[in-house]
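User: Assemble these into one structure.

Assistant: Restating your components, then the assembled model:
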Amino acid sequence: MNAALAAIAAVLALTLVKATPLIYAALGGVLSERSGVINIGLEGIMIAGAFTSVAVSGATGSPVAGALAGIAAGALLAAVLAFGATRLGVDQIVAGTGLNIAALAAAAFGIVLVYHQPGASREVPGFGRGGELTLIALAFATAVLLHIVLQRTPWGLHVRACGEDPSAAEAAGIDALRTRFIAVVTGGAIASLGGVYLSLAELDLYSDGMTAGRGFIALAAVIFGRWTPLGATGAALFFGFFSALQFALQRTGVPSELMQALPYAAAVVALAGFAGRVRAPAADGVPYVRH
Amino acid sequence: MTLRGFLRGRTFRDLAVVTVLVFGVGSVAMLLAHVSPIDGFGALFDGAFGTPEEFAETLVQTTNLLFPALGIAVAFRAGLFNIGAEGQLILGGFAAGWLGAAVPLPAFVALPMVLAAGALAGGIWGAIPGFLRARFAANEVIATLMLNVIAFLLATYLVNGPLALAGAGPSETPTLPHAAQLPDLLTGSRLTWAFVIALALALFLRWLLFRTIFGYELRAAGDAPEAAKRAGIDLGRTALVAMSISGAIAGLGGATIVSGELHRFNTGLSPGYGFIAIAVALVGSLDPLWIVAAAFAFGVLQSGGIAMQAEAGVPRDVVSLVTGLVIIALAGRRVVAARRTT
């Protein structure tokens, strides 16, 4: 009985660990998409956060400095996407795809330059247990805060207006392009914390491919959570739970590939509307051009 | 087209951007790695063109990029963002490798059936997001993105689990019988008739997209969906057909890698051809003939990158970095109009 309880407790604890990076990335995605910009580049932004925070923590010996640098790197990548999407009218999907490829390669190249070895960095000063718990708690706090900002503040209303109908928003005196830019960059900063968590709280190093598609699972969580901060957090916990369960069931013969595929399959099903009414912001992914 | 018209055109501007990115970013990266760009690019081009075998490998990489890029172009032309070529290619490769190794096929039909199986599997994997888009207006970008991962996990599960075959290594199928292998074009290299098939396919698609009513309707659905709808074009049907064709072409590409180069399916058969192919399709202006040229350029980078790393000590990641930047730089072109009206 005690063994069973311990096993359940272990799965739940692991759920939090697995869900936290997804929560950050998904919240970044929610903010971006609610303003009308689809951020396919979440994966690349997580990579930028993970790599930069490790490089800076290794160089300065301060994980906090590393985390701040990681957030800055994620915000910078998001700014590239945001600038292209709002000012240059580039296609968000294509640019986001390129961003993922470029970020992965730049980090791999950076590892060779900084550590003179391919594949992974050396171990760097990380956050330790206390810092990890703080980051986990901060993820949930960010979710609640984002919910309040989107639903209860004028700026949140502006963001949602830009995601539904940017022309009408502009007619009401909102600068849609600026609002979208700020939302995407802030979203990038939030999402990069998912990468920072992976590298400085879970592993204390960067290794190539360590984000392992979490940015895409986060996109799935955004949809499954119906584009709301709390919904996306719930979806991230759900996907984190399955990821934790996978470890628990490793020796039971349940095929791990099928369990890993679950978040992705759930997103496809949700997209098709089989999981109740799911509606994206009306102007999600639609470039806004002033006339 | 006159020379002046060409120099003013978008294609030329794109080529200039790409050239600047490749040599500019490449040089900076090489300098950061303490390698002279002359040595670095020297090793790259030597690795891509130095010997007949190396040139053959460049054409192999060209072929592997050409199939998914042509598939992507068909979908993009129809206004559909198929970023699922990677998954379609992997499942096509799996279907080809499994059928060829598991089912004793008569010699004269083995090769066509193996290739057809790849096209069919890729086509089905492309048809799923096409159907979801047509029937439920589901965003095909997210769907294809998710289906990429599902395809990889599904192939890994099947090849190691329920469809595992005797005599195969982990995550592999056994060697295909000789009759199911694409013949070599150049002995001693991995270059096979897949290259010729890809070129023929490019010509066929050029004709299909620009010289037939079907191609006209497909492009109309992409360029001006509202007008196309009013003119009686069934947008849902077009989405389903375009995505199926797109997936089938990528799946055929996976089958040619299995049947020609590797002679077996392996879950690691693609180093991301389906994603690099997005850059190829964009650089090629979504025109099958230009895409052949773009695939060759990226083929040079892919095969030369290996030599650049081995001979000059520049990490191969520079090639991927440049590829990603090319995609970002060319994201400005108006690829898809359809998404803006849904």
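The two ends of chain A are 68 Å apart (CA to CA).
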